Structure formats: C-alpha cells, structure tokens
Amino acid sequence: MTIRHDYEVSSEGAVRHWEIPYARLEHITPDPTEPAAVLSLLPGTQLTGTVLTIDAVNSIAVIDFTCSMVYSQLVRNVLTYVGGPAEGTWGPINIGDPIYYDRSALMVALGVRLSTSPADQGAGANPLFGFAVPAHDNDAFPKGGITASIQTVAVMQIGAGGE
Known about the structure:
By secondary structure, the chain is mainly beta. Helices cover 4% and strands 34% of the residues. The chain folds into 2 domains: 14-64, no CATH class; 70-154, no CATH class. Strands 5-9-8-10-11 form a 5-stranded mixed beta barrel.
C-alpha cells in the first residue's frame, strides 16, 4: 500500500467533537460529562455522545461523538416498563451489555440519561448509546441486581460511524 500524504496516517481513530445547538438535543439543558442524543426523525436512531463543554450564552454544546470512546456514566438497571412511568423489571449490568439513551420522563426526573432498556416508558425505541466495559482491571461485574438501582458504569459509546 502506498501512502500518498501524511494526513492519511494516524495512530488513533478519528476524534469527533462537534458543536450542537441545545435545540437539537433530546435534553435541551445539557451538562458536561452527561450523555447526549441529537434529535432525529426516527426514534431510536439518534446520534449519541458525551457532552464535553457547554456555551450557555450561545446555547451550544460540544459533544464527543468519537466511536469507541469510553466514559464513566450513571446507568439505571431498568430492563422494561409497564405502562406509563412505572418500571417493570430490572437486572444486573454485565460486561458487554447494551446501554441505551433512555428518553423516559422517569429517567429525566432521576437525573439519569442511560439505562439497559431498549424501549422507553412509552414503548418507543431508545437509541443504542454503547456497551458496558470494565473501567479498570479490578472493576467488579455484574453491577446492580434484580431491584432498581443506578450504577456507575464505564460505557464504550457507539458515537458517529460506529454502527
């Protein structure tokens, strides 16, 4: 293989930090380090990433959409909802489990954006955010159990271009 230009070579994957207006986000008052989802025409297909910084004056968030980036996130261990805001079942979070950006009102009330539920409380599709991974060699799994809890989990995000 011939490499024509230096810019074609990189020792790491492309880093994707983009400015997104608050009005284009699922949660229009983002905070740094929180997960974010960009609005989409089709529920469950949102571009997701992690808020790095905010510019409250101009209502813009800089979001890391880098594929495979790992961030420590709060994750609710809900698996299903049973009509309205009620959670139905919960389960332990294990390495490799899918983590979703949960748009449910209950999650907003709890101040948590991620869960293990593929559907929100209205049975709409939640977008896949990433996967649970160990934060370090001694990171204990599974996290949580069969009762409701919020766990700190290292999540490898899907980001842009990862699906």
